[in-house]
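Work Package 4 report. The design task specified in the project plan requires that, given a folded chain encoded as structure tokens, an amino acid be chosen for each position. We show below one input record used in the internal validation round.
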């Protein structure tokens, strides 16, 4: 592993805070309320729609053909494969796709997705992929960590297994490889810019679970 090892070191305290978050602790022990998980799942589905747009923008700016293909495939996957997971949850919650699609983005979700779209549209490619990486990498690491403990709740166990899976891990490794290959060509100032973007979106990952736990709404 190349520069991505340095990136991970830069968020060790953030990742530790994520693992301590009550949303994930209660997801694992099965005590997380359905209301909180439902709120999170709906917002996550809305997030993935915007994340897919950001991936497509990154694909359009990628310098290698195989990277263009990969990011576009990931964008399609975000809308297809994970939508299947979410919609299986929504059926259990009694929610229609139309209700989910018309739900407003919570403040943190809107801020996070707006930041990702701005990066993918206007920042240099290396900064864009650094900003997109935590959504992949942190979820994979969280999935593996939580899988070791498991969950007595079958719905929560299904969520955990999705992100701990070898299939998801292979997607993450692909993005890690691109990030390392890109970083190998950069100056120290450009690497610092990557780190800053990576830290910001890692913080947003913590905030996303906090948003779900609080069922965040606009204060005014």
């Amino acid at each position: 592993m190349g520069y991505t090892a340095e990136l991970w070191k830069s968020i060790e305290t953030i990742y530790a805070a994520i693992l301590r978050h009550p949303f994930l602790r209660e997801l694992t022990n099965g005590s997380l309320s359905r209301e909180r998980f439902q709120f999170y799942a709906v917002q996550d589905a809305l997030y993935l729609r915007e994340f897919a747009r950001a991936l497509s923008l990154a694909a359009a700016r990628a310098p290698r053909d195989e990277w263009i293909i990969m990011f576009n495939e990931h964008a399609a996957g975000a809308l297809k494969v994970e939508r299947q997971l979410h919609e299986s949850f929504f059926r259990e919650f009694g929610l229609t796709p139309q209700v989910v699609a018309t739900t407003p983005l919570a403040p943190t979700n809107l801020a996070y997705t707006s930041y990702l779209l701005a990066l993918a549209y206007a920042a240099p490619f290396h900064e864009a992929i650094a900003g997109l990486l935590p959504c992949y990498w942190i979820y994979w690491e969280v999935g593996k960590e939580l899988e070791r403990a498991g969950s007595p709740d079958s719905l929560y166990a299904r969520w955990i297994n999705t992100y701990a899976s070898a299939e998801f891990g292979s997607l993450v490794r692909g993005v890690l490889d691109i990030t390392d290959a890109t970083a190998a060509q950069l100056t120290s100032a450009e690497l610092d810019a990557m780190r800053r973007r990576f830290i910001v979106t890692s913080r947003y990952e913590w905030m996303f679970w906090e948003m779900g736990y609080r069922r965040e709404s606009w204060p005014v």
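The CA atoms of residues 59 and 71 lie 5 Å apart. Validation will be extended to a larger panel in the next phase.
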